[in-house]
Amino acid sequence: MKPFHRLLQCAFAVLTASASARADLIEQFVPGQRDCAPCTWFQTLLGGGAAPNGHSGVMQIASMPVGTFLASGWLSFTPQGTFLTLYGGGSSTTEILTPGGAPLSDVRGAALLATAFGIIVDTGSGSIVGVTLYSGMILWTPTNTYLLLTGGIPTVYDITVGGVPIAGTRGVARLEAAVIDTDPGIGVAATLFSGAVVYTPSKAFLALTGGVVTASELLLGGVSIGGVRGVTAMGGSVAGGFLDSGSFLWTPSRVLLMLTGGGISISEVFDPVGGSIANVWGITRQSPLYPGGGFFQGMATVINDTKEHLVIVSGGVSTTEVTRPGGGSITSNVSVPPSSSLLRQASGLTMMFGSWNPPGSPAMRGTVLGSIQ
């Protein structure tokens, strides 16, 4: 458990007023919209296979028209390091450092959790004199998994389990998150409340924030969950600092349903005859996002190389096969290796190395892409 400071005020470069400098300045808190985060992500390929290193990317954190300005912020990770750029009529770039003060290099991916804006207004003139971008995101390298907070000096926290860093992260899935103003008065005390699944080749973890940073291993019947290929978030809520969410996780051999809220519940989803659903290469949400705060209900399609299943969660879990109009399975002929070195997930964006091999056709190597960042 690691405490972290609230996301402190830091105006964009060309909007220079400070709320503490004059009594007639107030900050209006604007929660971020629930939307996709535009991103561009590169990973090297060597000899037709996936290389374990060589990543670069740019991810938008948030953007918003503010008066005559467009306020925006984005994260860049390259071989030169990791950088935060803020724009508000002009741009200012800050290098992101590890908790030990070293350049944050060899970042393999970034997952945005939540954002909000603080709009600083001069009450005398009504003009906007400053903008603050509050945000939280998870970044990972081969040896560590970090939480990055913006809103003052960008601050990085090491996400650990029992004091041990999470190494070898392959994916991060945002379950639900929000930056919430916890100041009951006219001031702003922006606090990140979030829940995310972090997974490595051998284990999966639930990382939580809300004044502190915690992470714990996810277990199925007391056993580590290894080989996770992806996580499909079904929605949720962090109201009151309490994570209430639903999600599906899948491995080469099974599909799991995870519910949070009053504890963590993980159970296997079976096919219509009671068997494990193996070789899944994708799960797509088919219901509105679960709003949280009540009884979880959700619907998703689960697809492997030979069949497509519809899973409905509403009090219990029911699974039926989706068939062609005249009967017979809907067969994709897509296969993913048990250990895909191309596998990456950031929030809802997934990519995996796979192959496509319909009967009578030569096998085709390809990439499985899913959802949005």
Protein architecture, described:
Strand 6 and strand 7 (91-95) form a beta hairpin. 42% of the residues are buried. 0% of the residues lie in helices and 56% in strands. Strands 1, 14, 15, 16, 17, 28, 29, 30 and 31 form a 9-stranded mixed sheet that branches. Strands 2-8-9-10-11 form a 5-stranded antiparallel sheet, with no helix packed on it. Mean pLDDT is 88; it is low at 3-23. The chain contains no helices and 31 strands. With 373 residues, it is mainly β.
Q: Give a count of the beta strands, DSSP E runs of length 2 or more.
A: 31
Apparent shape:
globular
Task: Specify the number of helices.
Answer: 0
Strand content of the residues, in percent? over 45%
How is the main sheet built?
A: 9 strands, mixed
CA(first)-CA(last) distance = 27 Å
Which spans have pLDDT < 50 for at least 5 consecutive residues?
3-23
The computed structural class is: mainly beta
**Share in helix:** under 10%
Q: Using only CA atoms, what is the Rg?
A: 22 Å
* Mean pLDDT, all residues: 88
Can you lay out the helices and strands and say which pair or pack?
Elements: E1 2-3, E2 25-31, E3 39-46, E4 49-66, E5 69-78, E6 81-88, E7 91-95, E8 109-122, E9 128-140, E10 145-150, E11 155-158, E12 160-161, E13 164-165, E14 171-181, E15 190-199, E16 204-209, E17 212-217, E18 219-220, E19 223-224, E20 230-237, E21 244-250, E22 255-260, E23 264-269, E24 280-285, E25 297-304, E26 308-314, E27 316-321, E28 334-335, E29 344-346, E30 349-356, E31 364-370
Parallel strand pairs: 14-29
Antiparallel strand pairs: 1-17, 2-8, 3-4, 4-5, 5-6, 6-7, 8-9, 9-10, 10-11, 12-13, 14-15, 15-16, 16-17, 18-19, 20-21, 21-22, 22-23, 24-25, 25-26, 26-27, 28-30, 29-30, 30-31
